[in-house]
Amino acid sequence: SATPSIIEKRRDIEPFDINAVQTLYSFGDSYTTQNLNLSTMAYACRNCTSAGGLNWVEYLADLHPMKYWNLAYNSAPISNAMVGQNSSAVADVTKQITSMFPQYFNSTNQQDPSTTLYTIWVGINDIDLTADWPDTKKLDKELMKQYRSLVEYLVTQHNARQFVLITVPPIDRSPMWQSKGSDAVEMIKKRVKGK
């Protein structure tokens, strides 16, 4: 019989403390965006979100006061090219992280890694945009590979150390998917779970 391995707690990593966070950088889609105007570096308004009111980023910053920069964009997938979306209309998460972030927050403005948090919430648009594709298993693996490379980019190029990575919620429960019937609901449920 196999004996479970015990992973020793790393002593060189401090436990995460949300109260120590002073700066937040967020990437993602409409669930995250606050419509940052990059020329003025100001948000359209506190309620200019897909929720029609405060979103989770604003709630987090209100609960734990911090300076935050939200580069998320409506309809963003991990990669426009990978899901066949017009790249000129939407700043995908790849562009947000590898182009927009270094352009507006270059290495001379790097924050202390122990007080900076990076968040990414993405995946819903990747699934919705490719739901009618005949086989998405290979695509999903490639999307996750790209997602991992984006996190590694932040770690290696921007010294990021603290992350919150939010997964796709059970979108099979949404009215849009419920209206498509039980086969569509089951397909989406399995895809979200990675099966």
UniProtKB/TrEMBL annotation:
Transmembrane segments: none annotated. It comes from the Eukaryota. One of its GO terms (molecular function) is hydrolase activity, acting on ester bonds. Coiled coil: none annotated. InterPro entries: GDSL (IPR001087), SGNH_hydro_sf (IPR036514). This is Carbohydrate esterase family 16 protein. The lineage of its organism: Eukaryota, Fungi, Fungi incertae sedis, Mucoromycota, Mucoromycotina.
